[in-house]
Amino acid sequence: MKSNYLMGAAAIALLAGAAQAQDLKFEPGADARFNWDSFEALKSVDLKGQSLKIDGPWGGVDKELFESVIAYFEAATGADVEYSGGDGFEQRVMIDVEAGSPPGIAVIPQPGLAADLAKRGKLAPLPAETSAWLLENYAAGQSWVDLASYAGPDGTKALYGMFYKVDVKSLVWYVPENFEDAGYAIPTSMEELKALTEQIVADGGTPWCIGLGSGPATGWPATDWVEDMMLRNNTPQEYDAWVSNDMKFNDPKVVTAVEDFGWFARTDANVAGGSGAVGSTDFRDSPKGLFTSPPACYMHKQASFIPSFFPEGTVVGQDADFFYFPAYADKDLGRPVLGAGTLFVITQDSPVAQEFMKFLQSPIAHEVWMAQSGFLTPHKGVNPDAYGDPTLKKMGDILLGADTFRFDGSDLMPGAIGAGVFWTGMVDYTSGKDAATVTADIQKTWDSIK
Amino acid sequence: MEGIVGTKSRLVWAVNLCALVLVLLWTFPTFGLLVSSFRDRDQISASGWWKAMFPAEASVQYRAAGPDTAKLIDGLYVIEGNIFDGGPGEVTAFGTSIREPGAHIVGTDVVTDDGEVVTVAGSGDFRISSTAPMEGTRGMRIFATSVTPAKFTFENYGRVMGAEGIGRAFLNTMTVSIPATVIPILVAAFAAYALAWMEFPGRALIVALVVGLLVVPLQLALIPLLKMHNEIGIGKSYIGIWLAHTGFGLPLAIYLLRNYMIGLPREIIESARVDGATDFQIFLKIILPLSFPALASFAIFQFLWTWNDLLVAIVFLGNSEDQLVMTGQLKNLMGSRGGDWEILATSAFVTIAVPLVVFFAMQTYLVRGLLAGSVK
């Protein structure tokens, strides 16, 4: 009788195993690029019958990709994890948290929002081991810990979140064959980039496509430009001071950075459609200028996500490629990289949520997404060969090779600035207002909300 | 006399013209949306929909087959093909460098820097030949100025209709909107009768309160209402969203129905009272059948509103697979950053189908019902 029972249990376990294996994108143990040990280790955690809800900003393709990662957690632990996400996440999570029906884990793109939730006591702090782990295993670990440490409701600072999935912003996209036809070389310093810009104009071409349009968020691509220019004209410490407003927004250093962006965007000949078109061109349509014939422009500066807006059939790495948005050779500020990322926070504490956060520390959670598309990680313990295509690997190298990594400053500033007057101010600037006035106006708003 | 007749006809003309202009103003963007829904994303970003109907002159680039496919013919390595891939179109000029995409007229032989000879014919047929074996991994780019006939695609409709979970989302929306239309009508009909025909103290005050509620924006109630649902244990569920839609719809429903009912002839109701009918009988046998136009018109309004709603559904229902409504599903289709305009245009026409059926089925009532309360 007992052996019968055991046989039955074994059969069920086998069947369950088979059913789970079908859902997994890469068969466990098959591909040597993956750290299957970390997957096997996870099997010791038993979470059968427990469920976890995750809400986040990813919809469409990203949602499917993240679900393929979740499948491994479910297969190993037996927990039931449901990811539901998409557009309008910021409003949704605020309503849910306020009304008392938060998801288990929230995936937050803006650290500022997480800091706000932590202050109101809506987030569960992560155990101390996590910050030690981050310091040891993430490239530029300290900056990731700092970005996710906030004051709680009682004012004590603690780590509340963990970054998973990172975007690199300091990239310039171009069409290699256009460069080849025209005989241009990839610039390795800002001086060379400016010289190339002037040369393209002299040759009768248009160097840049810049589009700031993004519906209600119009202006944000310009904030990335300014942030990159801040990092190339000033030390990382000065950048941090600017983000926290210890350095005034209308400080001469900031004005210089804004004007450095203006050097590219406010000269009619430098931009497709003239500088007047910068504010009105949609950022999603802007990169298409690279691929027209004759080319509307030769270069486009945008984050690592932009290939999804290239014309259909474009092969990244062949039809289009990117180079690092270079630093000034004579300023000795290293190779700064600007980026952004999504932060996982626990909005409703439970054992399964804690285990999921631990799962995100295992290499396999990163490698499964890396091997597909659109995923970068600062995790030093993962196998870089797992990157699904050479382009991703190249971006990953930029990330790992950064002397300085700084998070998108506008996401760290208060919402009224970083998602408000900074955007509109930059649109004003590109349409002709001078940098000193624009930055002084932004500082005035910042003073008023303090 | 003649002058008056003249002005009158001129006035009629003016009115008709105004009506025509208004109709055009309303339908023109919709027509544009319809045209856009048959174009792919690259077409939409390249030119406006009004250009979609005409043959387009465009600068195209075509990548020839790779060097490894070259055939050896009479001592020459040759790659042949058609830049329209056999489709219709006409080439007027071509080039081999992005610097001069239209430098040569069709039919001429062009020698590239690598020593390859390229020629393109008006039909789009091209021939690349070389005396030495061709090198490299990718095919040559050929640029051409071409005229291609108008092109439309059904692919967008295929994508929207065939999207995963769209059928489920359709059922979810139906599950939300049908009860969310029926419940408020039931409640509001009773309330409207009481406010119109039953004498009790404070009646006018209640009517004023209901009218006042029309002004309150529903966004104000989202968080407190969801909090209440969580506390009494409804949480995020269909019951929750029915209650929410009922609450948000009631003020307008009561106001509309009361105004209609109060316009019904007093004599009928009083004679029924004299004959010994109770209030409930009067409501059921006399008022309800007579108010059918008003009920129908409100039903259309409420159905359209719940059908199109995204905000209330996301807040009170959640966005997991088995609860996501159609609007939410379509929003996800537009991609993480919302750049797929063609999906937006197409989904507009897909979602419009059911409300159109409802509207035409009840249209005659709507016209009568719209007069509700306005003429006494």
Q: Write down the Rg of chain A.
A: 23 Å
Order of helices and strands of chain A: HHEHEHEHHHEEEEHHHHHEEEHHHEHHH
Helix fraction of chain A, binned, reads 40-55%
CATH superfamily of the largest domain in chain B: MetI-like
* Morphology call of chain A: globular
Q: Unreliable stretches of chain B, pLDDT < 50, 5 or more residues?
A: none
Strand content of chain A: 5-15%
CATH H level, superfamily name of the largest domain in chain A: Periplasmic binding protein-like II
The CATH class name of the largest domain in chain B reads: Mainly Alpha
**How big is the Rg of chain B?**
33 Å
CATH topology of the largest domain in chain A: D-Maltodextrin-Binding Protein, domain 2
Q: In angstroms, what separates the terminal alpha carbons of chain A?
A: 74 Å
| Poorly predicted residue ranges of chain A | 1-22
* Strand percentage of chain B: 5-15%
What is the 3D shape of chain B? Answer: elongated
Q: Label the CATH architecture of the largest domain in chain B.
A: Orthogonal Bundle
Largest sheet of chain B: 5 strands, antiparallel
Number of domains of chain A: 2
Percent in helix of chain B: 55-70%
Overall number of domains of chain B? 2
Can you tell me about this structure?
- The complex is a heterodimer of chains A (450) and B (376).
- Chain A is α/β, with parallel strands linked by helices.
- Chain A contains 18 helices and eleven strands.
- Chain A has helices at residues 2-23, 36-42, 60-77, 89-99, 111-119, 128-137, 141-147, 176-182, 190-202, 220-233, 236-243, 252-265, 351-359, 363-370, 390-400, 409-412, 415-430, 435-449, and strands at 51-56, 80-85, 105-108, 149-151, 157-159, 161-168, 171-174, 299-301, 321-324, 336-346, 404-407.
- In chain A, α1 runs antiparallel to α3 (60-77), α3 runs antiparallel to α14 and α10 packs across α12 (252-265).
- The longest helix of chain A is centred in the N-terminal third of the chain and has 22 residues, at 2-23.
- The relative contact order of chain A is 0.16.
- Chain B is an alpha+beta fold.
- Chain B has two domains: 56-148, no CATH class; 159-370, MetI-like fold, CATH 1.10.3720.10.
- Chain B is built from 14 helices and nine strands.
- A five-stranded antiparallel beta sheet of chain B has the order 2-3-8-7-6, with no helix packed on it.
- In chain B, α5 packs across α7 (238-262).
- Chain B starts with a helix and ends in a 6-residue tail after the last helix.
- The interface between A and B is large, with 41 and 42 residues.
- Chain A: Belongs to the bacterial solute-binding protein 1 family.
- Chain A: InterPro entries: Bact_solute-bd_prot1 (IPR050490), SBP (IPR006059).
- Chain A: This is Maltose-binding protein /trehalose-binding protein /sucrose-binding protein.
